[in-house]
Amino acid sequence: MKNQLLFLSVFLISMTMFGQKDEIKSAEKSIKSNDFNTAITTINQAESLISSADDKMKAKFYYLKGIALYQNGGPQMDIDKTAAAFNELINFEKSINSYKYSDEVKGLVNTMVNGLASNASKDYSTAIETKEPSDFLKAAKQFHQVYMLSKTDTVFLDNAALVYYFAKDYATSRDLYKQLLDLNYTGIAQEFIATNKADGQDVSYPDKKAMDLQVKLGIVENPRVELKESRRELIFKNIAQNYSDLEEMDKALEYIAKGRAEFPESYSLLIDEANIYYKLGDNAKFKERLEMAIEMNPTEPTLYYNVGVMNMDQKKIDEAIKYFEKAIELNPKYGDAYNNIGAAIIDRAAPIIEEMNKSLSDFSKYDKLQKKQFEIYEKAVPYYEKAFELNKSSISVVQTLMGLYENLGMSEKLEAMQAVYAELKGE
């Protein structure tokens, strides 16, 4: 009985081997006849048998599978499946230290990569002009396909992640950026640059050899090698931005925190964190992060302006004015800061107006209070006038000035401002 079982086992193995060879020969014949659909069907049928084949037969199987899917590079080719098949072959032959088919396949891969990269760049240029998400999506898919064909070219994965974001496919963009983090991608690379003699514009080259050739031909001058900065900090930012656009604020803050742990001096990540807290309505943490940002970048006027706004919301009028004045010191043409100083000054009249409303029957007290009110208004006028000088199309500033001029009896200025208001309203 044992001998019979052994004989049966050997018989089954032999039948499997014959089946493998027959299927592979049939697929090869179909490929030579350019009957790729039949070849793919045959290869799919042989897939379950190939696990027991020897290395030589496995290599040939993977090769034929890739060639069948490649379909001579025709329009029917499924690029994703073809890329996976070619990479499967290359990785397998590398594992057995035999490269019978890899060199040929790498040539085909390079042809596909060059074609796809060129098309992706053209489609991206089109998308930049049209601003259509569908055009960005088309370019993004092609950049991703280039990476899938040539996984050493991680810059194409980076490109794909960015362009998917422009296409508003935030989930895919996020996933590709996370993949870049997992790959420890930095984007740091040498860039070969020379200056075109004809127009003085800088030209980038893929390698030093290409640059040196054009220098030798006298086409360009001033050849140099520059080092691209790391993009890793930006990747954390972009993951967080994708999560924010997906309304997943906790995850956005999580990746900002990871980024700041790796780049503790990052002003950009700190500002992004502040903006997320603002979006969440957490004004206390928003203000806190802005104050931290001021310590990092004390010459940025918008930071002082925004902290001033937060202080106004908290009714800290003197603090608000101090920050608005600092913003103006750094940017004397900061119209919104002048406007907000005027608004902060007017806020000081609020308790006086409240007391006036309680003293309507006490004319003497009411008049004294109104005098104080108008004194405050007089202090606000120059700031609103400066805001108007810097932005003459602001209806809200014009309306405020009209109210101030009317209260203060400044009839000539009131008439002039009423004319401006009518013109802005198209009356």
Entry summary:
With 427 residues, the protein is mainly alpha-helical. Helices cover 74% and strands 4% of the residues.
Query: What gyration radius follows from the Cα positions, in whole Å?
Result: 35 Å
Shape: elongated
Going by CATH, the architecture of the largest domain would be: Alpha Horseshoe
The percentage of residues in β strands lies in: under 5%
Query: Span between N and C termini?
Result: 108 Å
Q: Biggest sheet, strands in spatial order? A: 2-1-3
* Total of DSSP H or I helical runs spanning 4+ residues: 20
Mean pLDDT: 88
Number of strands: 3
Under CATH, the topology of the largest domain can be stated as Serine Threonine Protein Phosphatase 5, Tetratricopeptide repeat
Order of helices and strands: HHHHHHHHEEHEHHHHHHHHHHH
Helix % is over 70%
